[in-house]
Structure formats: structure tokens, C-alpha cells
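Q: A reviewer asked whether we had any structural model of the full assembly, not just the individual parts. We don't, so I'm hoping you can provide one. Inputs are below.
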Amino acid sequence: MKHFAELFRQLDTTTKTNKKVAALADYFSQAEDRDRLWTIALLSHRRPRRSVNSKLLRAWAGELAGIDIWLLEESYHVVGDLAETIALVLPPPEERHDEPLHFWIEKIQQFPKLTEEERKAEVVNAWRGLEKTERYLFNKLITGNFRVGVSQKLMTRALARAMEIPEDDLAHRLMGNWTPDETTFDQLVLSDNPQAQLSRPYPFYLAYQLEQELKDLGAPEEWQVEHKWDGIRGQLIVRGGETFVWSRGEELVTDKYPEYQNFHDFLPNGTVIDGEILAFTEGKPLGFNILQTRIGRKKVSKKTLQEAPVVLMAYDLLEYGGEDIRERPMNERRKLLEKVVSAATEMENESRLLISPTVQFTDWDELPAERATARERHSEGLMLKRKNSTYKVGRKKGDWWKWKIDPLTIDAVMMYAQRGHGRRANLYTDFTFGVWDGETLVPFTKAYSGMTDKEFNRITAWVRKNTVDRFGPVRSVKPHHVFEIGFEGIQKSSRHKSGVALRFPRMLRWREDKPKEEANTIEDLRAMLEQYG
Amino acid sequence: MALLTFTDRGIYCERADVYIDPWKPVRRALITHGHADHSRWGNEYYLATNSAGPVMRHRLGPEAKIQTIAYGEKLKINGVDFSYHPAGHIVGSAQIRVEYKGEVWVASGDYKLEDDGLSEPFESVKCHHFITESTFGLPVYRWEPQEVILADINDWWRENQAEGKVSMLTAYALGKAQRLLQGLDHSIGTIYTHGAIENTNEIIRRQGFKLPPTVRVTREIDKKAYPGNIVVTTPGSVGQPWAKKFNPLSLGSASGWMTLRGARRRRGADRGFVLSDHADWPGLLSAIEATGADNIYVTHGYTGIFSNYLREQGYNAVELETDYGEEAEAAAEATAETDSNPEGTES
Ligand SMILES: [Zn+2]
Ligand SMILES: [Zn+2]
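A: Here is a predicted structure for the entire assembly that you could use as a starting point for your response.
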């Protein structure tokens, strides 16, 4: 694990993309094949599942470190990361284990077959012979949440450089349903495997938020505009008489959506469609809230299927008649997409495949009004796509832009503060906010992002001086500061005292100009629920 | 009436009418060491060790009435015996021992156990009541020996030199900076210093402590001179216009906080070196044990957690609210920022 730990240290101690890519490329050109393969897997969200529950892990670590659980918990709260906490509290290693990365991962993969006692012995043995960074990585692997600040894109770039293969080509090879247990480095990266190819999706093309004036985009007729539907981005693949649906997180979700089971009955083989998995009924999209009831569910009940039926809202066509057409201009792909979708619709009686309608406009000035309808249509805003654009890999600027609606906002009073995690372990960054109900404040949301480190430093100093009470790690503070909270949606919730739950709440601004009395009220919140819930 | 009590001005000995490291102005202040959170403005009389005196004079100005005392020397005030003992934290830092009718208290200020080669090494003092800091009072904090860390720092400097970069290393002007200077391998290149640090260096050198040759950063120096060399500077100078001339740059930070990934990232440093002038977890525990004290008062740091742990170990431990520590970093950085003339005596 020594080399992998060294790689991790290098990646972890630089924020510079070039350095990260160089470190990775260097590692890829030297590591043994099994280690390379596992590194690719780890950096493309194919980490092993959690194999030890964290309660046991804490108990074993406390025992080896000679400290009580409460002290380990307190340390964890300060450090903000269990794997790191354990790596730090354990006594220095007594011996040195020198085995490579894949040795440890393969060992960890055996854990489910072991008894608890055997598992404990393996974990403790590993801890005894690994140094701090190696222990940290080992802990991350057994808790199933290994993460490092390198995107799949950067990893792919580094691997492409080390292996001297074109990057987009490699990106495509690395997608889909493979695991290091069923393939080899050669098969995955260097040669082609037809079985894997069948279900393999294309990398998604992602847009940046619009950063210029509309008119600076050029002539309106060169652009296609459609709504950015509020579901989950997905890719529908029909090949070899089978249907595969991938979500953007590169998860095969075909089984979760029975609505998509039989797409191969009315779409020809060699068809790949980029679209949105969207809750939809009676000709209209439903909110993301509705779709959310289906996320994370293994079994889909009849009731769910009735209340939250999904369609695939098609945006683009990537493969047609078995041919990769991503390099063709978008208006050409769009024509083919229209053809494919309408042919499918004729064969189906209740269509689960729809095409995302384009917005007709001749002048940029017409678009703001269209965007203003987004919230009531359950869309997140508009997508602007250049008609002659190719379908690119990953997030790229220039040809596709998303133009999201502004968030909903409310002014709220800070009531509780809690220390942050990880990067911000020594700062108060997690706050609970309230709105007025007459003379008292009702807490209604938490938020922990949206401010600069400088602001967090200032508010941390203030929190320390204005703590009214402590409940474990949480401090209640004097009601004083008003923050503008932004959020994407609001829904009814019986679990919250305020009766509402917000989607993606975050701090937009610290309203130091506003006295606390001028913050919003519970009635304001209810009015928003009425309008947008 | 306890010999020492804890008031809103600081640690107080009523019988002798003196305060130890008060945070609000008092008449007579016994000072453990020269850091801003322990040695504050506005007291009428100060008493510190001989070797702490010069830096305190520099910080508090020519008007301040500062008396000094040798380590181990006894001073009797109204029947109470006071003496200062090395705390190993920075040059001149002390634990203050207070004795009356056989009852002994020790206020330790800030301390570390490792001999850093510059500060007078920590000396354990037997007592009944021990006032301890807990800056790093969590089991996640364990230091490696300083030679390991200093070797890392020198390696980092060499790597940067090979890449044609300036190494910019941040440290508090008093204490950490000199400890680092003493450990830098000046055969690698030139060591440049920020004005606030160089001012302190001059004082420390005049006291007879040996530091390697350093060059104060001034406007006259061509910025092409810096790549390949190291600049030791204050945390507050990072990102200021003053630092623009160091380019290309690798930023290093040396502090106990660098133990945590989160803290390393927050600092925005390219490299974090775990080097502290405070005791680590095992250090705090062994220091406390060695005093033989049953009564422990825990000040700045993880006071709640640490005193709770001590109680479990059978000590009579109390958590104290003080004004030390939490603002120490801020204060150290503020000193650097308000130092409007970082290039020192030049203009
Ligand atoms: Zn200090
Ligand atoms: Zn202190």
C-alpha cells in the first residue's frame, strides 16, 4: 500500500490539476496491473462496499488505542472523519506490512465470509503494520467511503497520458458495468471486450451555468432551447435485444424503473438516448419531490408506480443504427431523435418515451419570460445548446449552457451552530435557522455552505462569544444574525417542527444590515409552500 | 480561601495581590511568556524571566514597566513564594510556581516536553495544584520527533529548489520561527525572513542564542533572487501584496494543527508540517502525572474533553474558562497584519 499511500499524499497535498495528473500518470506507469485496475476502480466510484460497520470499528480502535468510546467520539467530532480519527488515535505501528493495494482490497473483499472475531483479527493486524496514511486509506476502504479530490475525468486524463491512448476513447472504455474482479487491466484498458460493450454507456456531456449575457451567445437561430427537466439525467441503451438504463452517477438503474423494462420491444438495436428520468403523469412533469420517493428503494410497489410514474424525456441521440453519432452536429442528431421517438410512440400505446420539446423563439428577449415559467412547470430552468455542437465528454464550456432559475429565498435568524467536518473541523459552519412565529423563533432548516472561509472565521469567533447553551456538539446562540437562505424547492414535512422541508438550502448572504426583527415569518414560509410545494 | 482563584481578569493570588497572565489590565502581572494571549497590554507592572524580558520589551514598548527574574530564583510577596521554571514552549517561557505554607500551585502557561534546542527545556515541578493548557488535548495529536519534521522541511525546500520555486514557510514570529530557522539546512540556499520575524531574531541573537544567517526581505532585493531559496514569514503575510514577489511559490505551514487533513486544507498550504510548541496528548498526560498533583485546572484548548478524561483517570480536574488560546492564532496573525511595515527598519 506504500505506493498508493504516496500517491494519495501527493494528490491530497496539491490543489493544482497539473500536479495531480502528473502524480497519477507517474503512478499508472509504474504500478503493477492489479493495483492500476483497482486505482481506476476507486477513482471511478467503484469502491468496495462497507465491510465492517462503523460501530464495531470504533470499538476495536478504542480497544487498541486504549481509550474509551466517548473520547474516540469526541475526537471524531473534532476531526470530522472516522477513518482519519482512527488512523490518528492508534499507537504507532509495531511492524511494517509491505503488501500492495490489491492485496488489501482482496483481503477486505473476503470480510463478508469471516466471523466477527476473524474480521476483527484481520483489521487489528492491518492497523498494527500500517502507518498513518495507509491506515487512513485502509479504514476508508473498509467503511466503503474512499474518496479523493480527483475526478474521474482527471484520472482518465492521467491514465490516457501514461498509456498513450486518446482520452475520449479511454473515457468510453472505462464506463459501464465492470468490476476489477471480472476483468483485467489489459481487457479493460488495452483491448476491447464485446460483452462489456453491450451495456456500456457513453460519458455524459454536462453544461456549465450560463456566465454571459444571452445576446453575447450570438445569433438566436444558431441555438436550440429547451427546459432543464427536474429529474435524474439518464441514458437509455437498447442493444442486443436488451434494455439498459444508466443514471448520471453511472449506476445501472434499469431494475428500479419497471416502466423502462420493454424499451427494446419498440426501439431498434443500436439505439442510445440521452434524457431525463422524470416523474410524469397526465401530460405533465411532477416535481423532483415525487421522483425522490423512488430513489433508494429496492422494491417498487404498485402504489409507487401509480403515484410516481416515470418517463424518459429524451434530449439527444448518441447512437443510431449501432453507429456512434456523437460527432455529428446536434440539429442532425435531433432530427434522428425525433424520428426514433415518433416511431417508438406509434408502436406503444401508453408512451414512456417522450421528446423534450424545444422552445420556439426568434429574439433573446423572449427567453426570460419562458424561464420564469420554469418553477411551475417543474423544470430547473432552460438549457441552451448550439445547434451545430457535437456531443462532448464531461463538463465543457462553450456549446451547452444551463440557465437555471434563481433560488427561492427567505431571511432567517441563526439559532444553533455546530462545528464543521473535515476541511472545516475547527470552525462553526453548520447552522440551524429559524423564522418568527409571533415572538418566538421556529427552527426550519439547517445550512452549512455558501460562505467564504473568512466569513466562517468571523462567525466562529462570534459564536464562541455568544453561546447561550451547549447540547453536546451543538451550541445555541443569541438570536442576532440574519442570513438570506436560498433553496430550490419546498415541501410539506411532518418530521419538521415548522411543517416544511427545503431542498438544497444554503446561505446566500450574511445580512448584517438586517436586524433580527426583520427576518421572515412562519406565515411567509407557509405562503411559499402553498405556491411552490 | 484558595491560594489561587480564577477571576474574570485572570488567575489571581489574593494574598500577594498578583495576577498570572491576566487578560484584563491589573496592577501586578506575573507573565509566563511573551505570546500575545499571555502577555497583554495595559498592566502596570510585569514580571517575567530574564530571557523573556527583551522580547516583551519589544512588544510592549519602552514605557512598560518590566522586571525580570532568573529561573529558580525565589521571590517572596506577603509570605507567598513565587518562582519561575522552564516550560520549554519558547525562549524565556516559564511555569510559575506559587507556594504558601506548604501548599504548592503551578501555573504552566503553554508548554512542551520535547527539547527543541533553543527554548530552556521543560522542567517538571512537583505540586498539589496544576494549571495546564490543553491546546492539543485530544488523542489524535501525537508529535513525531522534531528532527524527522525538520528533515521533511529541508527535503521540501530542496524539491522546490529543483523546480525553481520559492519555499514560503509560515510560522509565528516569536518561537516557532526561530525553532524552524535553527533547523533549516542553510547549505541549501539563502534564508530570507519577514520583518516581524527578523526583528525578533535580532533580539534573540543579542541574548546569545545561535540562529543561522538570515536576510531580511527588503524592497531593494531583486525578486529574481528568491526562487530556490526559502522565506520564513508570518501566517498573516500570506496573500498580502507583500508576498506577491515570491513567485513561483510553494507554501508550507508548520503547526500542530497540520495533523488534520481538514486544517491543512483550510490553511491553503501546499504542505503542512506537524510541528508544535505545545505538548501533544501523551506529553500532556505525562507532564500532569509527573507533577504528582491531584487537582488539575484545564485552560485553553479542548478543556471540556480533556478535563473529563482526567476525571476518569482519578484526578480532581476542573475546566476553566479563560481568554487564552482561542484567540492566540488570531492574535499572532493580527500582529503580522498590523505590522504595516513588514520590511522593518528599512523606511
Ligand atoms: Zn504561547
Ligand atoms: Zn497559550
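A: Points you may want to mention in the reply: Chain A touches chain B at residues 12-14, 65, 67-68, 70-72, 74-75, 78-81, 84-85, 88-89, 92, 420-427, 453, 461, 464 (CB under 8 Å). Chain A has a mean pLDDT of 89.
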